[in-house]
Amino acid sequence: MSLLRLLPILALIVACTPQDVRPPARSAQFDEFPKRLFDTFEISCDGPGERFENTGNRVFECTELLPPDMTAFLILNYDGYPQDLPKSVMRLTTTKNNSGYLVDAELYFSVPRKSGPSVKVPVESETLDKALGALYQALGGSPT
User: CA-based angle 77:93:1, to the nearest 5?
Assistant: First the structure.
């Protein structure tokens, strides 16, 4: 799954939006629990600087350190704390519903600050959204 490998590259070309702007929907409906999607997600999150975590009931997250120039940009523009580096985050959450399972993807940069909570900077990219939709379809989902 090269989607996660593209995130740092795409991050350099996408616009960082203010927190009050909602990112585009990145969801798909699956008839059955998408175990293959989550297995693929976990396997693909094993590169240098990446960490996979099951953060809660049906919530899966891959975090990755960023290139130095993007790290500096985020620290300087979002009052980051250099001793705790920003990371890209891709979170997949699944919810059971009447039609099966809804999977929602959230992509953002997490910028820790010395005082106060971390800033979540949403990642917007039409290319990334298309790649995510194609991944959902390849693994049996219907993008919503």
Answer: 80
Contact 135, 3 (CB under 8 A): yes
Q: Which two tokens stand for residue 106?
A: 């959230």
Tens of pLDDT, residue by residue, the chain (144 residues)? 444 454 444 444 444 444 444 445 699 999 999 999 999 999 999 999 999 999 878 999 999 999 999 999 999 999 999 999 999 999 999 999 999 999 999 999 999 998 889 999 999 888 989 989 999 999 999 998
Residue 28 — φ and ψ, nearest 5°? -150, 150
Q: Which helix (H) or strand (E) holds 42?
A: helix 35-44
* Whole-number Å distance between alpha carbons of 26 and 76: 29
Q: Give the residue from 111, 106, 103 showing the smallest Cα distance to 123.
A: 106
pTM over 0.85: no
